[in-house]
Amino acid sequence: MPAHEAESDTTTTEPPDLPGSPDPLTRERAHLAASRSALRAMREDVQALDIRDVTANWVNSVVLQAQMDDRIKALADLSHTPLFFGRLDYLHRVGADEAEGAEGEQFYIGRRHVHDAHGDPMVIDWRAPVSQPFYRASRKDPQDVGRRRRFGYTSGELTAYEDEHLTDPAEAAQTSKLLQAEIERPRVGPMRDIVATIQPEQDEIVRSGLGGTVCVQGGPGTGKTAVGLHRVAYLLYAHRDRLARTGTLVIGPNRSFLHYIEQVLPALGELEVKQATVDDLVTAHVEVRGTDEAAAAVVKGDARMAEVLRRAIRSHVTPPTEPVMVVRGSRRWRVPVYELEEIVDELLARDIRYGAAHEALPQRIAHCVLTRMEEAGEAPDDRVQNAVARTPAVKAAVKASWPAVDPARLVLRLLSDPEFLAAHADGLLTEDERKTILWSRPPRSAKSAKWSLADAVLIDEARDLVARTHSLGHVVIDEAQDLSPMQYRAVGRRCSTGSATVLGDLAQGTTPWSTESWEQALFHLGKADALVEELTAGFRVPREVIAYASRLLPSIAPGLAPVESVRESPGSMAVREVADPAGLDAAVLAACAESLAHEGSIGLIAADARIPALAAALEAAGHVCLSPGEETTAESRLTLVPASLAKGLEYDYVVLDDPAAVVDGEPDERTGLRRLYVALTRAVSGLIVLHSAPLPEALA
């Protein structure tokens, strides 16, 4: 399928032209111009709407105006984002019986829908059912598509096209050059959408239904992050009303990563998806000022802590020992102890949230009083029941049997009081594990405590035991392999009535508590029935680079299938030993200069401890470095990346400083080798590895 450019003879791929008619490329450019004009008209129509006479009050007016503002933003014509990237020529009219011989239709496939003044489509949204064959049609299954056309752009200008005749047996199957060029385009700026390059196996995941949770295991360069983001965009298209009510959330490993991906969904016209880290979720109600040793963090992150917390909260429930005497006017109404015990036992047996039971208990006691009133011939109503529930006698009974619990104070007591922890961790945590998480110098109060992130997760769990956490309609969790069981629970309760897209790579688990299997992770997430998909085809990391990094897999993820890269890029990597350790900084500077001679972004990745020295060396050499997640530009293309923040990011060219230091910077060898695997696989065009210390044995 040859790619046709402006100076090429393109008449072979179109029906015969009439004398003097424009060539196909000119016609496609004309359609692009007309589509841009139509989009501009759509935006102007919304801007011209006058809502003053169609809203009942100022609240409706504000809501409607906000919706209109979002619509105006969604209709923006981004100069760097082509309106359409493909075209489908159907053999028959869509939906018509092929036997009817109906004339075929032609659809342009783009990032958003565009229609003309008559409402006829000029560009079809890539998420629409009629667009699906663009990603899935093949010679074996053409899906009634006679021709699939791809377009090539340079700086927003349509410069080439490429045709694939799916029903022509005489045309040999070839790799799309335009598709390959789009995949390999330099990575300057934030992460881009992959809507023009989605592969069939990726499209199946993207278009999965809202009702089920999908877990995607994908090695470096397989596009799992992009697949997850595009699935959100698809679900918002297919289930907009439902998700508008329930909400969607993308969870990333850190702020740098979220900044890197934040432009993908807006480029697809989706502006309402919120982004956060797990830390953001659990620190909304507690200030984090402390850190944990790895051993303590592992125990605090263990799922057994959920049962410890549940026991600790339930321990506040005390069987009633005295009857309740309620005075109403000249009458006294008595609720005996045995009835109070029955109410408390019933609430315990129902296993509802502790706070909900705390609210229900006074109403249940008041109901008993109202029953006696009715038996005595009175006719009390709901107002009387509420008044009885607020009487001092009932309040005292509730406080004695089912007192209110403050989640932070509960966790503080567990981590400060050895006897309290031992009582509720009996049979769950060993004595050594209990000692590991106990504070050596307990704080005086929850406010003065220097909570760690692991503590914040425990408090979040305790808050959910007291009052149910609000659930969203759909949550995407990226780099999910790094979450602890308790963190999975924190995310899971935020989609307990919704669904999730779980993205990750077991080989890139770089926390001491990272998951060993997706089955375990999904169980803790509360989505044990999720569908697990594996992406093994790599589209960005060169074959040489991924093969070199895959040497680590037997040590870090035995049994995990290595990524099979489709990109052949001979000479894309080099491993250079620096004999004199004192010359390592100079060698790094030279490698950065060598990489900067190429087009695209450059990432200098090093062990966290090496960052200050390298930053000073780069500054002395006149290099201005970006921080991870900052947007690269044509003028600023070099980013200095601590190995701990490299996950999820990608650069055209990577210089990796001293692999042994990356490994030694982690608490154990397996985690260090996994961190190294991440660092090695950030390059999408070329990799230079520099070392003065011997390479790790698993790599060498």
Short description:
The chain is 39% helix and 16% strand. By secondary structure, it is α/β, with parallel strands linked by helices.
Describe the structure using short key phrases.
700 residues, alpha/beta, Rossmann fold, 4 domains, seven-stranded mixed β-sheet, six-stranded parallel β-sheet, 39% helix, globular
- Which band does the percent of strand residues land in? 15-25%
Total domains: 4
Low-confidence stretches: 6-18
Number of β-strand runs:
22
**Class computed from helices, strands and strand pairing:** alpha/beta
Morphology call: globular
Helix content: 25-40%
Q: Give the number of helices.
A: 28
N- to C-terminal distance = 42 Å
Q: Note the main sheet.
A: 7 strands, mixed
- Gyration radius, to the nearest Å? 31 Å
Major beta sheet, strand line-up? 1-7-6-2-3-5-4
Overall pLDDT level:
89
Protein name: AAA family ATPase
Region (Disordered): 1-26
Keywords: ATP-binding, Helicase, Hydrolase, Nucleotide-binding
Binding site for ATP: 218-225
What does this protein look like?
By secondary structure, the chain is an alpha/beta fold. It folds into four domains: 3-185, no CATH class; 201-286 and 468-538, P-loop containing nucleotide triphosphate hydrolases (Rossmann fold, 3-Layer(aba) Sandwich), CATH 3.40.50.300; 324-401, no CATH class; 558-691, Rossmann fold (3-Layer(aba) Sandwich). Helix content is 39%, strand content 16%. It is built from 28 helices and 22 strands. The strands form five sheets. The protein has a seven-stranded mixed β-sheet, with helices on both faces. The protein has a six-stranded parallel β-sheet with strand order 10-9-13-14-8-15. A hairpin with a 2-residue loop joins strand 6 and strand 7 (157-165). Helix 12 packs across helix 20 (453-466) and helix 14 crosses helix 15. The longest helix is centred in the first third of the chain and has 24 residues, at 24-47. The protein is globular, with a radius of gyration of 31 Å. The two termini are 42 Å apart. The model is unreliable at 6-18 (pLDDT under 50). It comes from Streptomyces finlayi. ATP binds at residues 218-225. InterPro entries: DNA_helicase_UvrD/REP (IPR000212), P-loop_NTPase (IPR027417), UvrD-like_ATP-bd (IPR014016), UvrD-like_helicase_C (IPR027785).
